[in-house]
TrEMBL record:
Cellular compartment(s): Membrane
SUPFAM superfamilies to which the protein is assigned, alphabetical: Rhomboid-like (SSF144091)
Keywords, ordered alphabetically: Membrane, Transmembrane, Transmembrane helix
Membrane topology, as annotated: Multi-pass membrane protein
Positions of the Peptidase S54 rhomboid domain: 51-182
Name listed for the protein in its UniProt record: Rhomboid family protein
Pfam families: Rhomboid
Superkingdom of origin: Bacteria
Residue stretches spanning the membrane: 12-33, 64-82, 89-105, 111-130, 137-155, 161-180
MF terms in GO: serine-type endopeptidase activity
An annotated GO cellular component: membrane
Signal peptide: none
Natural source organism: Chryseolinea serpens
């Protein structure tokens, strides 16, 4: 179980990322700076920058909000209950997801943090299944109840939505769950 000081620290990483997402959106809207052009454009030199910046950029306020809420919740759960591996899982979800999108996605400008959201959700769901201890299974069930619809998001349903980011995030989340479920002390 996490200590009292980690309760506050459990949300620091996701809150910082969300702050940067909102700051980027603010700069784009208030000053007209076209930051969205710096998303992930697969297999292009310019698109490499998107691996770092793509999750910070959003197409609309609704897009931003729809990534903010689950990112804060899932990120806080990750860091609170699994603080010893939380940073590694978060890092993988951010970078490995974006690298996979850059390598394999269709030619488009992929923006938004939903790939990271999917990585966190799939990690939390599958970690409990692989780990099989009471707390991890309980977290898996809660996340599955709240975010079970993520399984549909990995399918190509809307050409305006980067299902590739969702799919890559799911793969990274499941891969991380497999890798870290073998560690003895994760909290």
């Amino acid at each position: 179980m996490a200590s009292d000081t980690s309760v506050i620290g459990s949300s620091v990483v996701p809150f910082r990322l969300v702050f940067l997402m909102w700051a980027a959106f603010y700069v784009e809207v208030m000053f007209g700076v076209p930051l969205r052009q710096f998303g992930i454009v697969p297999r292009t030199f310019q698109g490499l920058l998107g691996i770092f910046l793509g999750p910070l950029l959003h197409g609309s306020i609704l897009h931003l909000i729809s990534n903010t809420i689950p990112l804060l919740f899932l990120g806080a759960v990750l860091f609170f209950f699994y603080n010893r591996i939380g940073a590694q899982v978060f890092f993988r979800g951010y970078f490995w997801t974006n690298i996979l999108v850059w390598l394999f996605a269709r030619p488009a400008n992929h923006i938004g943090a939903s790939g990271l959201v999917y990585a966190l959700a799939f990690f939390l769901i599958f970690f409990g299944m692989f780990r099989r201890d009471f707390l991890s299974l309980f977290i898996s069930i809660v996340v599955l109840i709240l975010y079970g619809s993520v399984f549909y998001g990995v399918l190509p349903t809307d050409p305006e939505i980067s299902w590739e980011s969702h799919f890559a995030g799911a793969l990274v989340g499941i891969g991380s769950a497999i890798t870290f479920s073998k560690k003895k002390n994760v909290s």
